[in-house]
Amino acid sequence: MKEAPLKGIKIIDASSILMVPYCTRLLADMGAEIIKVETLSGDNTRYIGPSINKGMAAVFLNINRNKKSISVDLKSADGRLIIYKLIKKSDVFVSNIRKASLEKLKLTHSDFIKINPKIITANAVGFSSRGPYAGLPAFDDTIQAISGMAAYQEIYSDQPSYTSGATADKVTGLMLGMSILSALFNREKNGEGTELEVPMMETMVDFTLVEHLYGYNFLPPKAPPVYPRQSSPNRKPYKTLDGYIAVLPYSDDQWLRFFSIIKKENILKDPKFCSLESRNQNIDELYKILSEELKKRNTSFWIKNLREQDIPATKVNFPKDLFEDEHLERTNFFKVQDHPTEGKLLYPSFPVEFNEDETSESLHAPSLGENTKEILTDLGYSEFEIESFVSKGTIKI
Predict the structure, then answer these.
(1) Per residue in 306-331, pLDDT tens?
(2) pTM of the entire predicted model
(3) Which domains can be identified in the chain, with CATH numbers?
C-alpha cells in the first residue's frame, strides 16, 4: 500500500471555528499529521449542533476528524514553550489568530524561525495587512457582505443576502490549503521556510469577480460588473410535473438537440437565439421558454431524453436526498466511523482519488486535550512535569 501524499508532514493548527479547521481537515485527508492546539475551553464548534456528549457536537466532529488535540494555555510561559518545542519538530504552523494577538503571545514567524528555519507560517486573516482594514475582526457573513457576494444574491431576494453556507470560510480555507501546499513545494526546491498570509476579503473578491468582472475587465469599462446569464433572476432550477430539474444546454449543438426534443427547432433561427453571444444577451427570454416547456413533463422524462442527447441535466437533490443518491452510494462517498465515545458517525470522504491504494489513516475527532499527554511525552516531558502543568492550569488532558 502506497503512502498518502502528505504522509510525514506535521502541521500545528492553532485555529478555531470553520475556515482553518476545514483547510487542515483536507490536508489531514491527504496524509498530514494535524495537531490541533485548543484553549482550555476548546474550539467553539465543539458546542454547535446536536451532540451525544458535551464538547463533541456535530459541526466539530465533521471538520476535525483525522486530527489530534492538545489543550494548552498559550498565554502562559510554559504553554508557549510547549508550542516552541512543537515548532522544532513541525513543518507548518497555521492559525486564524489576529496579528496583534500573535505578537503578544510571541507566536509569530520571526519567533519561529529562530527555532526552526524551515517552518512555514500560514496566517488566515480577514483583510490584507497592507490595507486600512488590517486587523479588523472578520467572519463569514461580514466577508460575504464586503466582498460583494451578498449583493450579487440580491437578484433572488430583492435585497443583499448571504448564501446558505459558510461560503467565505470554505473558499478561503481552500485557498489557504493550496497556499500551504505551494509553500511546502517551494521549500523542497530552496530548503527555506516562509510566511504567508491569506486574507478572506481579497480571496472572496477574486472568487466573486471570476465571471462578474465582465465589462470592468476593460478600462474604461464596457459593461457593468455583472455576468448576465448568472445574474438573471430566472436562472434557477425549473419546475417539472413532479419536482425540479436543472438543465443547461450551452453550445449551439446542445440547444439544437434540446429544441428538437420539444419540437421547436425553428427557435434557433431567431436572431435573438442563434449564437452564444445573442443567447447571452437575451437569456431571460430563453429561460422563460425553458420554464414553460419543462413544466409539461415529469422529471424522469426530461432526465432520460436530455441525457440521451448529451445535454447537461440533473434532478434537484434536497439535503436528505444526498444520502440516498445512487451515484454517491456506488462511489462509497459517505463513510461510517466507529467513534470511541460518540458511536457510529457518518462523514463525507475526501473527493480526490490519487490511486486506489493511496490512503491516509482515519482518526476519530478528538475529545478536548485527548492527545495532550501523548504529544508532551513525545516532546520529552516527564510524567511529573505533565502533572505539574495540569495542576497549574497550563494544559488539559
Answers:
(1) 999 999 999 999 999 999 999 999 99
(2) 0.94
(3) 2-207+331-396 (3.40.50.10540), 238-315 (3.30.1540.10)
